Amino acid sequence: xxxxxxxxxxxxxxxxxxxxxxxxxxxxxxxxxxxxxxxxxxxxxxxxxxxxxxxxxxxxxxxxxxxxxxxxxxxxxxxxxxxxxxxxxxxxxxxxxxxxxxxxxxxxx
Length: 109
Fold this sequence. Notes:
By secondary structure, this protein is mostly helical.
């Protein structure tokens, strides 16, 4: 939606008739300042919104990375527990080793 030259002329003519030639420059300056402030505010809001969206993306990436690290940590703990279990002597092996050691000692006497 754009404003043409004809519409601008009509708005200026109405403003000239309503306000008068003395106050029209002051009102035009005030209106220009307001438009500038509104544009600056909109630009700041847009920038802030974009930064917030980037921050949300970074937070999601950190959460995903954190969950991956937790999974890896659990896997390491599981493998360590399995390795520890495999290193512990089993009760059956202890009895067999005791019997073998006792027989070996008796044979050597």
